[in-house]
From TrEMBL:
Pfam families: Ribonuclease_P (PF00825). Belongs to the RnpA family. Its EC number is 3.1.26.5. Consists of a catalytic RNA component (M1 or rnpB) and a protein subunit. It comes from the Bacteria. GO terms for biological process: tRNA 5'-leader removal. It catalyses: Endonucleolytic cleavage of RNA, removing 5'-extranucleotides from tRNA precursor. One of its GO terms (molecular function) is tRNA binding. RNaseP catalyzes the removal of the 5'-leader sequence from pre-tRNA to produce the mature 5'-terminus. It can also cleave other RNA substrates such as 4.5S RNA. The protein component plays an auxiliary but essential role in vivo by binding to the 5'-leader sequence and broadening the substrate specificity of the ribozyme. The lineage of its organism: Bacteria, Pseudomonadati, Pseudomonadota, Alphaproteobacteria, Acetobacterales. SUPFAM superfamilies: Ribosomal protein S5 domain 2-like. It comes from Nguyenibacter vanlangensis. The keyword tRNA processing applies. This is Ribonuclease P protein component. The keyword Phosphoprotein does not apply.
Length: 116
């Protein structure tokens, strides 16, 4: 996950995941997942809307999501899927261990991983 080349960066990529992917809401984040049908590493995108706060708050929220994803992906690498993590108002104030639990549950619910 540390490699920047496995990031979703273009608006069209985010829109494709949003339109065809599976959406899993949780208290700390919203996960959108789209199976690609290959074995390439997972591509991951992060987004936080202006409703969450100003630029400083949005960037902090995005950093928390990136770190949570880094830790979860380190436990069990993901492949063959495009993921979009959407920050919510509760992401910033949520306990980090609870945020990790939200992400793990969302990945399991989306069918991306079957463990933990």
């Amino acid at each position: 996950m540390a490699d920047r080349s496995v990031r979703l960066k273009k608006r069209a990529e985010f829109l494709l995941v949003a339109s065809r992917g599976r959406k899993v809401p949780s208290p700390g984040l919203v996960l959108q997942a789209l199976e690609r049908g290959d074995s390439d590493p997972a591509r991951i995108g992060f987004t936080v809307t202006k409703k969450v706060g100003n630029a400083v708050v949005r960037n902090r929220t995005r950093r928390r999501l990136r770190e949570a994803m880094r830790q979860v992906a380190h436990e069990a690498p993901l492949s063959g899927v495009d993921l979009v993590l959407i920050g919510r108002g509760g992401t910033r104030g949520r306990d980090f261990s609870a945020l990790l639990g939200d992400l793990r549950r969302a990945l399991r619910k989306a069918g991306v991983r079957g463990d933990s």
